[in-house]
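Morning. Coffee machine broken again, so started the prediction first thing and wrote up yesterday's gels while waiting. Chain of 459 residues, entered below exactly as on the submission form.
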Amino acid sequence: MPREAEPYRIKMVEPLRKISREERGKALQEAGYNPFLLKAEDVYIDLLTDSGTGAMSDRQWSAMMVGDEAYAGGRSFYKVKAAIKDIFNYNEIIPTHQGRGAEQVLFPHLIKRKGQYVLGNMHFDTTMAWIELNKAVPVNLVIEEAFDTGKAHPFKGNFDLERLENFIVEKGADNIAFIIITVTCNSAGGQPVSMENVRGVKRIADKYGLKINFDSARFAENAYFIKQREKGYADKSIKEIVQEMYAMGDYLTMSAKKDAIVNMGGMIAFKDDPGLYAEACASCVPMEGFVTYGGLSGRDLECLAVGLYEGIEVDYLESRIGQVEYLGEELRKAGIAIQWPVGGHAVFVDAGKFLPHIPAEQFPAQALCNELYLEAGVRPVEIGSLLLGRDPETGVQKKAGVEFMRLTIPRRVYTDRHMDVVVDALIKIKERREQIKGLEFVYEPKVLRHFLCRLKPVE
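Came back before lunch.
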């Protein structure tokens, strides 16, 4: 379908700087072949993440001017609380500095003992890390279609409900800490979860007395996909869809740096659990800050209160996801395998198919990320075996279901011309892909290694 123009005007610009290929090669070598360690000023088009990298609106910038910097009980906190009640119908919130702060505070109260399982459609990196740091075991139960990048399926983020129930029966409900539904499912390619599937998870959770937490970084994008793809939702508003979905949960953790379009912020929200809310409040104070600011300034909270509403505007979502679809379509025309259909926040290139000569243990997606930076100054990110890491008990390298290179598009930042640069660069790389080498470690941290590790090309 033809796309409408962006539903905004550009009032400020930031100049981009493109250094030479020789300079990019030197920068990448100094960064240990890890794009996370590049200087942002050495990057031309930054597709590393959509977390905190979006462009805030005039309404958000003006809201900053009335931010209440009270240490406790500031009015800015109550604006966010009112927005969460209005959009999600959850009663209590605890602000945090970002999503992993929310997980840090909440998860120790949900995981009761070592060895419990946390069941998810597909856990992302920091979520998996906080589960493992609390001595629990993350288990991915996403449908098999998520691993077939060429197969069309409208909701590749769905749980395999049969496997979910069988796992609970096999291990015993007492050994399950909680269920976490990630919307959209980032590790599967930014793929949405259907309302029907959430209902199925809810039925199973109720049957076995288990609680549900929503990982809500991209809740609005997930609701948009339900509106577009699921029967019976075309005429419903994004807010109506969100409320129907979240009525089936008990808590939410959110990195607000995505769908709330802020540069910093996150939260925990509780539908109705005063006891757990009190326990989490007590943990928040030493970890994040007092419970009405949680590590955020009043200015941050004001931007968040506005951004929560901007993020559920249909015109905005249509434009935002339309740009992701544009990039995906252009790559498919060029014969480049991607997770199809595209997700909400990024295009995920199947690097295993792009670089079939590089084995998983030599991190083909990371090698492709580096090559795209060398070719065009574009910084993507690896979502594959490097991110997945090692089994915490055995130290054995885990193998990702798909070796993804994620081209993550910040909100309201780049134009389609920038996407064309990415496409042209990958076409050039495809012509010489046999020359690309895999990577091996020079330095490997034990936890969340992909952020700080250093690598070198395999000889």
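The first helix runs from residue 21 to 30. Going to sketch it on the whiteboard this afternoon.
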